[in-house]
Amino acid sequence: MKGSAFGTEVAEPYAQALMAVAQSNNLTDRFGDDIRTLIDLIESSQDLSEFLANPVVKDPDKKAILRRIARESHPYLVNFLMLIVDKRRVIFLKKICEQYLELLRKLKNAVLAEVISATELNERQRQAVSDKVRALTGAQAVELKTKIDPDLIGGVIIKVGSQVYDASLRGQLRRISYSLSSAT
Question: Which residues form the signal peptide (predicted)?
Answer without folding.
Answer: none
